[in-house]
Amino acid sequence: MLRVSCVSKIYESARGAYFALDNVSLTIADGEFVCLLGPSGCGKSTLLNILAGFEPVSDGTVMFGDAEVTGADRERVMLFQDAGSALLPWLSTEENVRFGLRVRKMAKADWPATIDKYLRMVSLDSHRAKFPSELSGGMRQRLQIARALAVEPKVLLMDEPFAALDALTRRHMHTVLLDIWRRTGKTIVFVTHDIAEAIALADRIAVMSTGPRSAITRLIDIDLPRPRDMTNPKVAQLFNEIEALLAPDVLRSNERLEAK
Q1: Vertex 203: Cα angle to 67 and 27 (nearest 5)
Q2: Which tens digit of pLDDT belongs to each residue from 126-179?
């Protein structure tokens, strides 16, 4: 579905060239759930923006199927951390989903059934007349997911979508997202800095190093049945392994922040 080959991203500034990503390669299969995991400044969001076509690569290639990614495409839809900013505040819940159908250029006769389908999928069918400001944080994220699904993309690119939610709502959103993933078969690339979240959700975790010259340092297969019991000793062992892998980068990232 997605193939990243030897991708580098360089930003030019008055101080000279800055390598945000250096020689990153990753293959993501159709229907796979992959988490990009790492501390702040490791290039996770940069890589996600490249997959979306929002950012050009400085070197290397990104392939979506048989076509090279050279710009944004409705087959790859981005979901953001701040759903409140991503949604259109002057439109109701139903109208926000309808906006996705306009983007898709679906025949108007098919709008009602499609809107019903996706609002039911995210359990918002009884809130269709409410505006985003009247919804909770978790509900706004569910609405953002429904609007994205209405476009019928092949890939959902999710940039720390649950980071601003409280712990209980976040766990609920994990269940909601995994249910949607199973029902739709979408490919999901999910950015997070939370090790437990990555273990709970992913088929594979791509662990990224802190920049400059960020790269994928390790790919970890999560061969555990879902829903995952986070008290399982295998989960604890995996958590400790990833935490140890990330520890030097987290320390460097904190030292860099303190220096500023």
Answers
A1: 25
A2: 999 999 999 999 999 999 999 999 888 999 999 999 988 899 999 999 999 999
pLDDT for 17-68, tens place per residue? Answer: 888 899 999 999 999 999 999 887 788 899 999 999 999 999 999 999 999 9
Letter string b/e over residues 165-182, b meaning 16 or more CB atoms within 10 A of that residue's CB: beeebbbebbebbbebbe
Closest CA to 132 of 167, 163, 166, 92: 92
Structure tokens that stand for 99 in this block:
């906006």
Domain residue spans of the chain: 1-75+155-229, 77-152
1-75+155-229 CATH pick, 3.20.20.80, 3.40.50.300, 3.90.1150.10, 3.90.830.10: 3.40.50.300
Query: pTM of the prediction?
Result: 0.91
C-alpha neighbours within 13 Å on the C-beta side of residue 200: 19
